[in-house]
Amino acid sequence: MRGDDNVAIEPRDRTVSVVAPQACEERHYPVAYWATLWGFSPKTVRDWFRDEYGPGILRQPNTGRRVTRDYTTITVSATAAARVYAKRTGKESIH
Fold first, then answer.
1. I need a labelling partner for 14 at 20 to 30 A (CA). Which of 47, 51, 65, 79 fits?
2. pLDDT score, position 32
3. Residues near 27 by Cβ (< 8 Å), separated by ≥ 6?
4. pTM metric for this prediction
5. What pLDDT shows up at residue 88?
6. Backbone angles phi, psi at 70, to 5 degrees
7. Beta-carbon count within 10 A of 44 CB
8. pLDDT tens across 11-27, in order?
9. Helix, strand, coil tally for the chain in percent (to 5)
């Protein structure tokens, strides 16, 4: 013993702060991934994200690369997917 027996030990603050990752730090998945996970067709999920903008939704226009038509590749982070899923279905996503 060191002779410190009368020293009061204060409990540490047990609060844990969790910092949510920024949209740019999250992994983004193609629309087909979310369609498979949720049990909807890729066309339905693509329609859900067509008019959605905000953090976590990346769009890559592919114009002038094809003769028939132009298209846009959409990839979505888990945070944005949960937001849109809840909005469209009225429920929380199940992960």
1. 79
2. 95
3. 77, 78
4. 0.65
5. 85
6. -90, 155
7. 13
8. 565 665 566 666 678 89
9. 30, 15, 55
The rounded distance, in Å, linking the Cα atoms of 79 and 24 is: 11
Residue 62: CA count within 13 A, CB half-sphere: 10
Q: For position 25, what pLDDT does the model report?
A: 81
The single-letter code of the amino acid at 5 is D
Tokens matching residue 12 = 């540490």
Kind of pairing between the strands at 28-30 and 57-62:
unpaired
Helices and strands in the chain: count of H runs, count of E runs: 3, 3
Strands 71-77 vs 57-62: parallel, antiparallel or unpaired: antiparallel
Per-residue pLDDT tens over the stretch 26-49: 899 999 999 999 999 999 999 999
Predicted confidence at residue 66, as pLDDT, reads 66
Using CA atoms, how far apart are residues 66 and 2, in angstroms rounded to an integer?
Answer: 79
